[in-house]
């Protein structure tokens, strides 16, 4: 409020900025490429025309367009926040005893490890499954789930965070690859000693993929990352500054599946996508953006989401380099 009165907000010409963002939103609307994920029926039922954009600045300035209030599952976007939470609690050194920092150059669910028998990074399934086992693993399953949901709510400044049980059940019943991946890692001793129950570990991972959010709530979560781990709405510190830096670095190099290198080249911003068609983008010290449109390209990224990011960089000088 004080910053508004003093005309000291991070984006002073908010109205003009929003006009540009709206025009990029409109520019991407006619994009018709891509295919909605169909590996589970719950995702395949989404209308390919759904398209939402929301933005939140590090000073809490907010705006949204299109289907920004409609809930969807965060899917792999959870991987970024789970890593940040695990690293905040256990420290980066401990977390990286079990998972690397390299882009894998392989599919997100591929059964492969790095030369040290570690998953390449926390943004692919193998790494994410291990990272989730590090979060509050002394609690029982119900308390762990409550804990993480409340943590997400804190990062989103109290905005909508839900859970889609049908997606969770579907994920679990079609999870042969994730089970295979986990047993392979178990055989090679990749899990921390305290992980004794793989079924529980995977259930927790599927539950976190099935957490629901909206563009509006995810924009605040992305803005918390843009703001060094402090939620811009509540001004509460949610993530320590070091894990916040670390997760942004990993999002920059590994957040967009097999397109991460090209995305980093063209857009130059940390981002994370999920198979529900969501992409979060972080412009450090400025704002968080959440994009959602279900049709995916061949790499598994939202077609409208990626074209939005490219157009954003055409119009603004936000590329980190
Ligand atoms: O583990 C799975 O198959 C999915 N629920 C992961 C979702 C996703 O967005 C892919 N990410 N890397």
From TrEMBL:
Enzyme class: hydrolase
UniProt KW Hydrolase keyword: yes
Source organism superkingdom: Eukaryota
GO terms of biological process kind: glutamate biosynthetic process; L-glutamine catabolic process
Gene Ontology molecular function terms on file: glutaminase activity
Keywords, sorted A to Z: ANK repeat, Hydrolase, Repeat
Range of residues in the leader sequence: none
EC number from the UniProt entry: 3.5.1.2
Reaction it catalyzes: L-glutamine + H2O = L-glutamate + NH4(+)
Entry keyword Signal: no
Family stated for the protein in its record: Belongs to the glutaminase family.
Name the UniProt record assigns to this protein: glutaminase
Annotated source species: Acrobeloides nanus
Classification lineage: Eukaryota, Metazoa, Ecdysozoa, Nematoda, Chromadorea
Residue span relative to the full protein: 116 to 436 of 598
